[in-house]
Design brief:
Strand order of the largest sheet: 5-4-3-7-6
Distance between the termini: 27 Å
Shape: elongated
CATH superfamily of the largest domain: Transcription elongation factor, GreA/GreB, C-terminal domain
Number of strands: 7
CATH architecture of the largest domain: Roll
Number of domains: 2
Helix content: 25-40%
Order of helices and strands: EHHEEEEHEE
Largest sheet: 5 strands, mixed
Radius of gyration: 22 Å
Length: 156
């Protein structure tokens, strides 16, 4: 499996902005908290200092993970693909054949998945079966709740 992470331009900008914020203001605030806790005296029995140092470690871990993500990131533009079959960043309208209801999904990388906003990962059970399909295709997704049958109605 490839180490490349495909992101939309928007998501790439969000990650870059978050990383900049954490490196500047996040680190500055953390240094101030540690200095304040250190001022409370004996570090060996200073729970506030220990907590601040632990938070600093978590902050640095998050910064490291974002830097790693950016180092693997490749921007994907949906305009580079045709709409005759589904691909990453496709907007897919499907009909759940059991409940006769339509849903609209955007196929995204796992890092961008957000079901509340209709963004499903291409590595999820539904995302996997939708990838590479055409309008009119019927697919079956094995999800934790059972099997869902979809028909692809539209691809944008």
């Amino acid at each position: 499996m490839s180490n490349i992470v495909y992101l939309s331009k928007e998501r790439l900008r969000e990650v870059e902005k978050e990383l900049t914020e954490l490196k500047t203001n996040g680190r500055k605030q953390m240094a101030a908290r540690i200095a304040e806790a250190r001022a409370h005296g004996d570090l060996s029995e200073n729970a506030e200092y220990d907590a601040a140092k632990e938070e600093q470690g978590l902050l640095e871990l998050k910064i490291s993970k974002l830097e790693e993500l950016l180092s693997k990131a490749r921007v994907v533009d949906s305009n580079q693909f045709s709409n005759d079959q589904t691909h990453i960043l496709s907007k897919v309208t499907v009909k759940n054949l059991k409940i006769n209801k339509t849903f609209k999904y955007i196929l995204v990388s796992p890092e961008e998945a957000d079901l509340q906003n209709g963004k499903i990962s291409i590595t999820s059970p539904v995302g996997k079966v939708l990838l590479g399909k055409k309008i009119g295709d019927k697919v079956q997704a094995n999800v934790p709740a059972g099997v869902i049958n979809f028909e692809i109605l539209n691809i944008e």
